[in-house]
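Appendix B. One record, verbatim.
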Amino acid sequence: RRFNWCKKNRGLKADDVVFSDEKFFMATSSGGHRRQWIPKARKDLLHPIEKSGYTDKVMVWGAIGIGFRHLVIVKAAGPSHAGVFQFTSSGKKVFVKRSEGGSFNLTSDWYRRHCLSGVLVNHLKRNNKIFMQDGAGAHRAKATLDYLKNKQVRVLDWPAKSPDLNPIERCWAILARRVNYSCCRTIDEIVDAVTKEFMALPQATIDALVRGHDTRRKAVLKLRGGW
């Protein structure tokens, strides 16, 4: 499917596409805890068995294109909070306690209202761009696709299991390294660091990542769908 998709989109230009995806950013290991143990029956083990504990984490959604970037803080949760923080389109935190059924899933309705409407849709329409999203449930829901169709936004069909074709994955990798340098321990610190580093990333770097999609698509063709 990847090979056929690349053949079908030989004439596609990354300059005409806005790429999107979600990403979790987590507190550093110093903000959580780790368990180590050696089973009684395996005292000969040179290294203990290790397991990381739960830690605070923040989910973000982003979109990048030539001369364009957009970031939305989606949700945050962790052991230091007895519930889930949800974020409005203005960035305001709304806290729901676990005792009150505090949970959060990225639904089609939330995705449309907070991620797509406004900045993103206006940019796509104004610049006649194609929108890329993967096959997540909220993305492929009928309500989401109908919304984009009504807004006259062209949506790029996307092959499954193809993060290597999405340049925003490389953007996330750069941000993850930078955020890790901040040694964030709390949700607020993670949100501040991700927002700061995302806006500080040079637009020239983002543009280069986007244009790299054309090269990667040719490589997949050469490898007949491989990585």
